[in-house]
Design brief:
This protein is 71% helix and 0% strand. The protein is mostly helical. Helix 4 packs antiparallel against helix 5 (75-89), helix 4 runs parallel beside helix 6 (92-101) and helix 7 (109-123) crosses helix 9. 36% of the residues are buried.
Length: 179
């Protein structure tokens, strides 16, 4: 993976911001840092989906990331986003339940519908039907929310595949956070 000495000044500045805000440079950022254009595309999409305006809370978006990563058994994303779920929910068990089997967690009707849809979209996307979208609407989601659920799930399907393809390991700090 690239080091601080081998990345461009622009990327180095971004790494500095990560260190300041997060206390670490996520390994996924390091992995994409070999190419400023690819790093920029990845971070813009991530920031838009995970931090941008949405009818979904930050926690809900992280929950989606964990459930997609559970379907795909992506060690990096399960660890990193499981940590975020623990931190945002202030519930260490929730992150573990979502990683192992979200169905065992005590979830609201809204969360259950969202994660049922997420699981199905990740595991068998060709089987998504109007009844699946109707279940989300019945749980209180608007069509824009459904788009956001699908966009977050789709982004993490891609991220999971990249992480698995390059054997991306999570930063050790994620294992210890919010336990």
């Amino acid at each position: 993976m690239p080091s601080r000495e081998t990345v461009s000044d622009e990327t180095g500045t971004y790494w500095d911001k990560c260190l300041e805000k997060l206390g670490l440079v996520p390994n996924v950022i390091r992995a994409y840092s070999f190419d400023d254009e690819k790093l920029g595309a990845f971070t813009r999409m991530y920031n838009t989906l995970m931090l941008g305006d949405s009818g979904l809370s930050k926690l809900e978006r992280e929950m989606i990331a964990v459930v997609v990563s559970s379907v795909n058994r992506c060690f990096y994303c399960l660890t990193a986003h499981g940590s975020a779920v623990r931190e945002l929910s202030e519930d260490a068990e929730l992150g573990e339940m979502l990683a192992m089997n979200y169905r065992v967690a005590e979830l609201s009707k809204r969360e259950r519908a969202m994660l049922d849809f997420t699981w199905k979209l990740a595991a068998s996307p060709a089987e998504i039907e109007e009844s699946d979208r109707e279940a989300l609407r019945a749980a209180g989601f608007e069509d824009r929310d459904i788009w956001d659920i699908a966009a977050v799930a789709s982004f993490f399907a891609m991220s999971n595949r990249m992480s698995s393809a390059i054997d991306l390991m999570p930063n050790p700090e994620y294992h210890r956070k919010s336990r």
